[in-house]
Design a protein that fits this description.
Length: about 400
């Protein structure tokens, strides 16, 4: 087998092994994080804290898994000069016929890791390997990579090692690049890559991740839509008056300054469904309106959305950065999506319907006693109450591209 091909096959074997290590470590860390969040919920941690921690945990799991993969390359290379993949294909990294040691091994693997950030450098390293028999990071660190032939005796191996053409004195009759030329090319590629990646990252960040005033695409309600929504809230108020009058007694007026804060955060727009919702449920934050879900304070909803604008959470749950929370339960909550013209209510990523339909669903569920309330205003769910509530949704339109999903 050609020496260059031995190194490539060894790298392929190590890549497969590293993928297995990455998946195992990711699974273990994900399991530990899940147990941690379960403990957090049992201790009654605030929902906002959970959301911020959840967004950061995914990134920490990824970085932790990469660290274990990094150690897989560094420790065996430093001690024995070879990883498992190199051992299988008889490839050894040496420094003057000795193992490289931890400093050179870790520097070597760090430079290999850095080169993948700049996508052109791995191509240059591969070209250098096939054309000149070495890579830029080995040349920079003064390391030699020895490839033993398969089937040789120990004496033959020692003789080959003694007269190997790929010693620092002679390198396969192929010219060795001077360091200044390697540095010049590397610097040019790095500058080009930084400009390309930096420009792309800046554009993506500004478009998708930069905190700003909230994007709003909701159209103002027409007179008919406003009347329908007001009728839905009147129906809900009548249902509560009959079945849970104590909740109406607990309501409080919504402070005008909170409404002003809401409008400022929505680019000065007045979103009637949101204002009517928060005004109706002000003061009822401690009571379940539907099973396991409580209304949220307006300040909390605004803070939740600001947290959703932060990069970790925006990557984990982009829907939260485009909506305002209405009800919160143990796991997620019901939110009004603001980036579509009609403004649908969602639970996580499941679409329910417009605000008018959602309020009517709650009123109808109370009227039909899908759940009831005790004299203290505590919700008592009947059998299959939640399932019957969800069954009141209008049939959602199905995707043409994916007929089974909506």
């Amino acid at each position: 087998m050609n020496n260059d091909m031995q190194r490539l096959f060894a790298f392929g074997a190590d890549a497969v092994i590293c993928y297995g290590i990455y998946k195992i470590v990711s699974f273990v860390l994900s399991l530990l994080s899940m147990l941690f969040f379960m403990k957090l919920q049992q201790d009654g941690a605030a929902g906002m804290e959970e959301m911020i921690l959840l967004g950061a945990t995914g990134i920490l799991i990824f970085l932790g898994s990469l660290f274990f993969v990094f150690l897989y390359f560094v420790i065996p290379t430093a001690i024995w000069g070879k990883t498992l993949g190199k051992l299988i294909f008889r490839v050894t990294v040496e420094y003057h016929s000795n193992p490289p040691g931890f400093l050179r091994a870790s520097t070597r693997e760090f430079l290999k890791l850095v080169q993948w950030v700049f996508f052109l450098i791995p191509i240059f390293a591969l070209y250098q390997l096939l054309e000149y028999g070495h890579t830029w990071y080995d040349q920079l660190l003064g390391l030699q990579v020895r490839c033993d032939a398969f089937g040789l005796t120990e004496t033959q191996k020692n003789w080959r090692k003694l007269h190997d053409r790929r010693t620092p004195a002679k390198l396969d009759a192929r010219k060795k690049w001077p360091l200044w030329k390697v540095g010049l090319l590397m610097g040019s590629i790095a500058v080009f890559s930084i400009v390309c990646f930096g420009g792309a990252a800046y554009f993506i960040y500004q478009k998708h991740f930069a905190p700003s005033t909230f994007e709003v695409a909701l159209k103002p309600l027409s007179e008919a839509e406003h009347a329908a929504l007001q009728k839905a809230f009147d129906r809900l108020e009548a249902a509560l008056k009959e079945h849970a009058p104590v909740l109406l007694e607990k309501r409080k007026p919504l402070p005008p300054e909170q409404l002003e804060t809401l409008r400022n955060s929505l680019n000065g727009k007045t979103i009637e469904p949101l204002e009517m919702w928060y005004a109706f449920f002000a003061g009822l934050e401690e009571y379940e309106i539907i099973p396991t879900a409580n209304p949220v304070e307006l300040d909390f909803a605004l803070e939740t959305r600001r947290a959703g604008q932060r990069l970790p959470l925006r990557l984990q749950a982009p829907q939260r950065a485009r909506s305002m929370m209405l009800l919160q339960d143990e796991y997620n909550g019901y939110s009004l999506l603001l980036t579509e013209e009609q403004g649908s209510v969602y639970y996580d990523i499941a679409r329910i319907d417009t605000m008018t339909k959602f309020v009517n669903m709650i009123a109808e569920s109370i009227e039909k006693k899908f759940w009831t309330y005790n004299p203290n205003g505590e919700l008592i769910e009947s059998e299959f109450g939640t399932e019957r509530f969800w069954a009141l949704r209008s049939p959602p339109p199905r995707s043409r591209k994916f007929p089974g999903y909506y």
